């Protein structure tokens, strides 16, 4: 036996692991973080800083800097997200107009900016000014006629194809993660999953550039969802500058939750809606501290965007409206009908889009992403150009559909037959019979609605940045405006009907078609995303229509009820399941009467559980076990006979610890004993130095008994964010349940394919 002096001497040598070494506590790509461990590590760090702060002034200043670092990160996120959103808005305006013409006085001006600066613009022809020329005027000096129309049509398609091709090429070559909306992956990342590179600097740069290109190309997609991804990339970049966040994945996710709020804040000009969106829709863990910081980040982002003033109306909101008529109780019926339409459209869209995306993943179609984008862009441009409502940008279309018809409106939707004897104030125009322009607009809107419904199904999910908020709102706004005009004309021609008699007298301004468009937009967006509270707040912040909260609430709740009747999943959850991400949705209920023993591994007939013993395995034994298995960690037991549980060791940390020990500690060889106890085991003389790995052992792994109901186990995984849970009986190890096992069991119970869950 070695004597005590030698043992103590080697003990000092062996305890080098009490000093942290690089990469311990980090996670591998496509793995889930351990929330409990991250929380515990942050508590230890905070305790250490607090105790040191009493030692000197410098340490006290460092503790203050640590406390303020969170607010500094929020300030930086808000400033960068607001700036990027403003630049994207300005670039999209210019490039969208570039498809139709160019400003001669300054080519970087959009159509609107070009005619603002002109002294020769009249009010009636405010869209026409000599400085702005269509391509046909510039190239062949013709503004009217068939040849001019064909040339403009051809160049519109060419520009659209050019923008789309450039976007898909940039995504494919430089940042494959920059495609799609980004919200399904952000939700998964915030639930504790690691996707390296998804929030990287290249992704941020390429997503910002390609977002401008794809929105300008006229495809049926929006920039709002991808702006959440862009803001989260900003959050990830700034959190990597502070060790408090860069070294703790749990704390990093608090920053990303706040960044998501800033993203919605700048996407819609809705700071409060952004905070609620982050809370209701994307965040998994949202402590009160994160709520305040999200509020601050959303405020800074909104302030920055307002300073840039990309909409040129000195307002933060995208679709500001001013209605001069209150809504009436009888109108709740059409509002609820729009809610039903929104729920049905949401269900149709989710089912068709998921079926198409699954086909893309499982057939040869997925091998040609560039060709797919080019074909869809060509079809969109060819069909969109002849219809004025699909030719313009979707944001402009929604803005026109939301607008009330004032005396100064030149839109076709406001072509009513005026009473020559009318002497009312400008703001209070009574309901009037529809003129030919309104009827033309109605059938054009009907065609545009069908086109938007179909093309959006195929556009969302392609290998380019693509948001869903604006196309969904456009579908609802078109349907709503048509319903609104219908109700308005019904009230005008049949004001003696019992439903109109009490509130709609002849010559009164009763019905506001723009309000119906607003309600329809909220209903369709709610049907697709299943948002409720944040949706209503975003809608009234977006439009400034505060007194119309009740119609918006009625439509949002109805659309959610109708859509939920066909399936509980929103579009983002459906895409998470399609990609096989390990996402435990808080909204899902587990009601089956199964037990932990039914789900744990090993099952009957399977090989016994791979375990480590506390003091009887050599370095070679541990390395062989790691090489032969692909488990994320191993339970540590007293011995293979007793199987009494001691703790749990992570695979990655075992590998790093052994690698570091071989490099930094003399005497560690393949037949050195590995021990996880406080005191070294008794060894025969001349045996190599043992290796102490107690520091990397989790001494309090979460355990349940084999008779714990799975309903409780699912709740534990959901609320504590566990990676795995050990199953014991009277302290003896029986098996292990991982997050993947839980998700596969839930899929099996719901008659879905359990193999669709691909990651742990």
TrEMBL record:
Keywords in alphabetical order: Antiport, ATP-binding, CBS domain, Chloride, Endosome, Ion transport, Membrane, Nucleotide-binding, Repeat, Transmembrane, Transmembrane helix, Transport
Alphabetical list of SMART domains matching this protein: CBS (SM00116)
Classification via InterPro entries: CBS_dom, CBS_dom_sf, Cl-channel_core, Cl_channel-4, ClC
MF (Gene Ontology): antiporter activity; ATP binding; voltage-gated chloride channel activity
CBS domain span: 600-664, 697-755
Bilayer topology: Multi-pass membrane protein
CDD domains: CBS_pair_voltage-gated_CLC_euk_bac, ClC_3_like
Location within or outside the cell: Endosome membrane; Membrane
Segments passing through the bilayer: 68-92, 153-175, 195-215, 227-243, 255-279, 332-356, 368-385, 441-461, 468-487, 515-540
GO cellular component assignments: early endosome; endosome membrane; Golgi apparatus; plasma membrane; synaptic vesicle
Principal subcellular localization: membrane
Any Pfam family hit: CBS
Family in the record: Belongs to the chloride channel (TC 2.A.49) family.
Protein name per Swiss-Prot or TrEMBL: Chloride channel protein
Organism: Alectura lathami
Gene name of the record: Clcn4
């Amino acid at each position: 036996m070695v004597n005590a002096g030698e043992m103590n001497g080697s003990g000092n040598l062996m305890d080098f692991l009490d000093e942290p070494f690089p990469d311990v506590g980090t996670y591998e790509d496509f793995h889930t973080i351990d929330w409990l461990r991250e929380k515990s590590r942050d508590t230890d760090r905070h305790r250490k800083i607090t105790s040191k702060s009493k030692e000197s002034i410098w340490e006290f200043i460092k503790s203050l800097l640590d406390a303020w670092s969170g607010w500094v990160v929020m300030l930086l996120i808000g400033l960068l997200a607001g700036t990027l959103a403003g630049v994207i808005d300005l670039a999209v305006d210019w490039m969208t107009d570039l498809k139709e013409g160019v400003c001669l006085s300054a080519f970087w001006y959009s159509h609107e900016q070009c005619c603002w600066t002109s002294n020769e613009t009249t009010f009636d022809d405010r869209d026409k000014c000599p400085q702005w020329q269509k391509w046909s005027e510039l190239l062949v000096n013709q503004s009217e006629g068939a040849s001019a129309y064909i040339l403009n049509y051809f160049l519109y398609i060419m520009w659209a194809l050019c923008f789309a091709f450039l976007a898909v090429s940039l995504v494919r070559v430089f940042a494959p993660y920059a495609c799609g909306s980004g919200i399904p992956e952000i939700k998964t990342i915030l639930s504790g999953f690691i996707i390296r590179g998804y929030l990287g600097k290249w992704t941020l740069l390429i997503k910002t550039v390609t977002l401008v290109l794809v929105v300008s190309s006229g495809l049926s997609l929006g920039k709002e969802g991808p702006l959440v991804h862009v803001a989260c990339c900003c959050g990830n970049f700034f959190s990597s500058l502070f060790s408090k966040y860069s070294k703790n994945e749990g704390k990093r996710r608090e920053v990303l939750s706040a960044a998501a709020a800033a993203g919605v804040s700048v996407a819609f000009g809705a700071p409060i809606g952004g905070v609620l969106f982050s809370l209701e829709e994307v965040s998994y863990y949202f402590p009160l501290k994160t709520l305040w910081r999200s509020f601050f980040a959303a405020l800074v982002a909104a302030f920055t965007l307002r300073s840039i003033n990309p909409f040129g109306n000195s307002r933060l909101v995208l679709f500001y409206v001013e209605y001069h008529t209150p809504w009436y109780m009888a109108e709740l019926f059409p509002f609820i009908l729009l809610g039903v339409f929104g729920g049905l459209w949401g269900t149709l869209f989710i089912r068709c889009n998921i079926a198409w995306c699954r086909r893309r993943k499982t057939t040869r179609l997925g091998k040609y992403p560039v060709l797919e984008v080019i074909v869809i862009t060509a079809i969109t441009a060819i069909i969109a150009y002849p219809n004025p409502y699909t030719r313009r940008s979707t944001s402009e279309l929604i803005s026109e559909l939301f607008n009330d018809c004032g005396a100064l409106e030149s839109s076709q939707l406001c072509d009513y037959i005026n009473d020559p004897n009318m002497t009312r104030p400008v703001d209070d125009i009574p309901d009037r019979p529809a003129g030919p322009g309104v009827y033309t607009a109605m059938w054009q809107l009907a065609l545009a609605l069908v086109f938007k419904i179909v093309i959006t199904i195929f556009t969302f999910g392609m290998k380019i940045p693509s948001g869903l908020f604006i196309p969904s709102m456009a579908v609802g706004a078109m349907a709503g405006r048509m319903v609104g005009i219908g109700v308005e004309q019904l009230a005008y021609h049949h004001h003696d009907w019992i439903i109109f008699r009490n509130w709609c007298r002849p010559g009164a301004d009763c019905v506001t078609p723009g309000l119906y468009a607003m309600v329809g937009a909220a209903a369709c967006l709610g049907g697709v995303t299943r948002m409720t509270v944040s949706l209503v707040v975003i809608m009234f912040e977006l439009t400034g229509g505060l007194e119309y909260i009740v119609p918006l609430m009625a439509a949002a709740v109805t659309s959610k009820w109708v859509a939920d009747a066909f399936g509980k999943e929103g579009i983002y959850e459906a895409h998470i399941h399609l990609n096989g991400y390990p996402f435990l949705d808080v909204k899902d209920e587990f009601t089956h009467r199964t037990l932990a023993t039914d789900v744990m591994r090993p099952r009957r007939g399977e090989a016994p559980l791979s375990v480590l013993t506390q003091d009887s395995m050599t370095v070679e034994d541990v390395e062989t076990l790691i090489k032969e298995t692909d488990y994320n960690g191993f339970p540590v037991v007293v011995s293979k006979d007793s199987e009494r549980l001691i703790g749990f060791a992570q695979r990655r940390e075992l590998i790093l610890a052994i690698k570091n020990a071989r490099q930094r500690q003399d005497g560690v060889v393949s037949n050195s004993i590995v021990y996880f106890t406080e005191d070294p085991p008794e060894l025969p003389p001349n045996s190599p130095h043992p290796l102490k790995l107690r520091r990397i052992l989790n001494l309090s792994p979460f355990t349940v008994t084999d008779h714990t109901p799975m309903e409780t186990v699912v709740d534990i995984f959901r609320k504590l964010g566990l990676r795995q849970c050990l199953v014991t009986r009277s302290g003896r190890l029986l098996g292990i349940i991982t997050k993947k096992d839980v998700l596969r069991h839930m899929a099996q119970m719901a008659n879905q394919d359990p193999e669709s869950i691909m990651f742990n």
